[in-house]
From TrEMBL:
Transmembrane segments: none
InterPro entries the UniProt entry points to: HTH_MarR-typ, WH-like_DNA-bd_sf, WH_DNA-bd_sf
Family matches, as SUPFAM superfamilies: Winged helix' DNA-binding domain
Segments forming domain HTH marR-type: 17-152
Superkingdom, natural source: Bacteria
Keyword field: DNA-binding, Transcription, Transcription regulation
GO molecular function, one term: DNA binding
Name of protein: Transcriptional regulator
Alphabetized PANTHER family for the sequence: TRANSCRIPTIONAL REGULATOR, MARR, TRANSCRIPTIONAL REPRESSOR OF EMRAB OPERON
Species this protein is from: Elusimicrobium minutum (strain Pei191)
Length: 158
């Protein structure tokens, strides 16, 4: 097992909250780096891929506004605009004025964007499976339960 002291995590201080956050961040970084390396062959970053996934599966045929996309992802409004600009330049998405809100655009995934998501999904999913394979199915279920509980309490408190 890794000695987390090398990362400045000192369990003897009794600050388990710190351990949880830092170890979770370290895990995220490892998975994100591996996903970044894989997705680069599709000219995607994890952020671009996640936006395409949200548009494809949440927006379906109707698309989503930029605000709706932002609510589903971990990126700021400014970052979403830049990422959407890049996805549009790549031909992965289209923007059209909203018929109900003149201030908003509806973002839709194009066929090439959808095909790219489908092509990239298998390898991306394999990375996620491998990263969680060190936990038993029961541990995965329990971890997901605890993390969802934590997430929901943070959202309610925000």
């Amino acid at each position: 097992m890794a000695d987390f002291r090398d990362y400045g995590i000192l369990p003897e201080k009794g600050r388990q909250y710190e351990e949880v956050i830092y170890v979770m961040a370290l895990i995220y970084n490892i998975i994100n780096n591996e996903a970044s390396n894989y997705l680069a062959r599709f000219d995607l970053t994890p952020a671009k891929f996640n936006i395409l996934m949200v548009i494809k599966y949440s927006g379906k045929n109707d698309g989503l506004t930029q605000v709706e996309i932002g609510k589903r992802l971990i990126v700021s409004a400014g970052n979403i605009t830049k990422i959407l600009d890049r996805l549009s330049a790549q031909g992965f998405i289209t923007r059209a004025p909203s018929k109900t809100d003149r201030r908003a655009n509806v973002i839709k995934i194009t066929k090439i964007g959808s095909d790219t998501v489908e092509e990239a999904w298998g390898g991306y999913d394999a990375i996620l499976k491998k990263a969680s394979s060190f936990l038993t199915a029961s541990e995965q279920k329990n971890t997901a339960f605890v993390l969802k509980k934590w997430f929901n309490s943070l959202i309610k408190g925000a």
